[in-house]
Amino acid sequence: MRTARWLVSVAAAASAATAAPIALSAAAAAEVPEIRFARQFSMGYLQFNVMEQHRLVEKHAKAAGIPEVKVAWATFNSPAAMNDALLSGSVDIVSGGVPGLLTIWARTRGTANAVKGVAAFSSQPILLNTRNPAIKTIADFTTQDKIAVPAVKVSVQAMMLQMAAAKQWGQANFATLDPLTVGMSPPDATVALLSDAGDITSVFSVPPFQYQQLEKPAIHTVLNSYEVFGGPHTFTVAWTSSQFRDKNPALYKALVAAFGEATQELNRDVRPAAQYWIDNVKSKMGVEKVAEIASGPQVKWTMVPENTMKYARFMHAVGSIKVMPEDWKELFFPEVHNLAGS
After folding, report:
1. What domains does the chain contain, in order, with CATH numbers?
2. How far apart, in whole angstroms, are the C-alpha atoms of residue 9 and residue 2?
C-alpha cells in the first residue's frame, strides 16, 4: 500500500563560427528567446532534469549571444499527444521512445516543417511485468488479460510487444496482442497492477515504475526488451521541428550544448539527477534507490542513437510508417551526425 500511495502521488502530481561573430550575435538577437520542452513520466529524461535544475539552456544561450531565454517545461502522458502539441506549435522540444520519433518523422518528411531527432537520452531496457502466475511467456496471454502501455500502437512498449509477437508467431501476426493493450500512464498502470483489482494484469512500463512493480513478490517479468532486440537499444530520444531549428539556429546550438553537458554530468555522478527527478515528480522514492536504477548495468546515458534502424525496419515492414529512412542520420539533425550512431 505504501508503494501504491507513492505512485498515486506521482500520477497526480553542443561551436560558434569565429569568422563572423557579429553576424552570429545579430542572428541570436533576432531569435525568439523561448523554448518549451515536453517530457513524459519516467526516468528516461534525466538530462532534462539536469538542464532544468542548472539552467543549462540559459547558460549556453547566453554564451551564444542570447542574454535571456524563457524556458518552459511540461509533462505529457503519451507521444501522440506530444507530437500533436509539437505540430500545433504549443511546444518546441518533445521526448519519447524511438517509435514516436519515427511516426512523426515519416508523417512530416518532405514538408516545410519536417521533424527530426535532436539526440538520444539513454539506452536501457523496458520490462513487461505481470501479476498472473500462469504467464511465463507472451504465448501464455489470453483474452482475459489486459496489458497496459503508455499509448496503444505508437508507444515504444506497444511496438516492442508487436516485435515480440512477430518473433513468436511470424511477422504476419505482429498485431496478435494488440487487442489486449490499454493506453494508461505508467504511474496509473502501476497502481492498477499493484492493486490486484480491475482488468490490468500486466504492464509494459518504464523505469522506475517497472522496478517498483517487481518489489511485490507476486509480480514477475515476462519480457525484457533487450531480449526482443537482441541487445541494447535507445530507449528515449528528443526531437523537434525543422521550423524551430531553422528559425532559432543559435538557440538550437545552445540546446545541443546543454544536452551534452547534462549527459556528461550524468556520467560523472547520477545521484544529483536522481534527486532532481524525485523533486520534479514529488516522488516518495529514496534517492539511493533511484540512483541505483539510473546507474544499472544495462543503463547507458548517451546522446548516441543506438539500433534506431531496427525500430525503423520493423515499423516499415508492418506498415506503421510508409517511408523508410536510408540510415539513422536521416532521422536526426546534423549536430549529432559525428556520433557513432546506428
Report:
1. 2-124+233-336 (3.40.190.10), 127-229 (3.40.190)
2. 11
Query: What separation, in Å, do the N-terminal and C-terminal C-alpha atoms of the chain show?
Result: 43
298 against 26, higher pLDDT:
298
CA atoms of 276 and 278, how far apart (whole Å): 5
pLDDT of 31 > 70? The answer is no
Read off the C-alpha cell for 214. 517487481
Do the Cβ atoms of 319 and 79 come closer than 8 Å?
A: no
Q: What are phi and psi of 274, to 5 degrees?
A: -60, -40
* Whole-structure pTM value: 0.86
What's the DSSP call for residue 335?
G
Q: Which residues pair with 181 in a beta bridge?
A: 147
CA distance 28 to 30: 5
Is pLDDT at 248 greater than 50 in this prediction?
yes
The DSSP element (H or E) to which 234 belongs, if any, is strand 234-241
Mapped onto helix, strand or coil, the DSSP state of residue 220 is strand
Q: Give the confidence band of 33 by pLDDT, cuts at 50, 70, 90.
A: confident
The x, y and z cell numbers of residue 164, run together, are 515480440
Q: How far apart, in whole angstroms, are the C-alpha atoms of residue 164 and residue 130?
A: 16
d(CA 109, CA 316): 14
Cα–Cα dist 325/269, whole Å: 35
Q: Which residues are paired to 71 by β-bridges?
A: 35
Instruction: Name the residue among 249, 329, 327, 312 with its Cα closest to residue 106.
Output: 312
Cell of 228: 526482443
Cell numbers that stand for 231 in this block: 541487445
Take residue 294 and report the three cell numbers written for it: 539510473
Q: How confident is the model at residue 80 (pLDDT cuts 50, 70, 90)?
A: confident
